Amino acid sequence: MTKDDKINALIIGGSSGLGLELGLFLAEYCNVFVTGRKDPQKKQLHFIPLEIKKSHLLSSDLDRVLTRVGAVELLIYAAGFHQDGAISDLEDSDIIAMINVKLTAPAMLLQKILRKQKKLSGFIAITSTSQLTPRLREPVYAAASAGLGMLARSVSLDKRVVKTLVAAPAGMKTNFWKGKTRKGVLLEPRWVAERIIDLYKMKFAYKQVLILREPPRIKTAVVVD
Ligand SMILES: NC(=O)c1ccc[n+]([C@@H]2O[C@H](COP(=O)([O-])OP(=O)(O)OC[C@H]3O[C@@H](n4cnc5c(N)ncnc54)[C@H](OP(=O)(O)O)[C@@H]3O)[C@@H](O)[C@H]2O)c1
Fold this sequence. Notes:
The chain is globular and about 45 Å long. The chain contains five helices and eight strands; from the N terminus they run βαββαβαβαβαββ.
């Protein structure tokens, strides 16, 4: 990444929190396109509205996003939302919405990008420590986060995908927790974004890291050169 030769970075879920902080860092080196439901109104970012909810609209909505961006060199998947409730508390629509946001949309995006392009230079999947920790009151979130992690690991075996980073953060101070109380000291999303950019600049083909709190620290789980 150099300032002279800007590549296109697409951040799904880049309108707030960690995705937004990543976009603000990357704007120096990339043409950054961010998606979400609310425009973050940042002049250095190109906002593309995208609501991920209903299965029958997803494919055409993602086509619209990809047409706007053109060639995607770096894809960051950061969309996600908190969902509290035991499995029997969740409605059908809750289950479908979570799976669409965390798994159907990134799978379709990778399918569409790789059908169109010969190469994807980088893929960063933001999962969660819930990817590895069973959660009684977040069963579909935990399952879909694990699914996103495995999607990224599997796609990293495709020779057209040059570099894949899976970052699984612990609790962060973002809108994810809006209106809810959370125990302990949460991670600053800006700090997490800086760590992810530093990690991404390293040489590897696949890397999975946990970004932990109390104290804030990085734990590398898997590296493939
Ligand atoms: N915060 C935490 O404690 C924590 C911990 C572990 C992992 N994570 C993961 O980190 C990632 C970033 O989350 P964050 O903490 O930065 O939260 P955030 O500030 O709420 O950001 C979430 C992003 O996802 C987008 N999004 C959510 N639901 C969407 C939907 N149905 N359709 C389209 N876009 C949607 C949001 O867009 P709009 O706001 O514009 O709708 C926003 O851009 C998520 O994948 C989350 O699961 C968060």
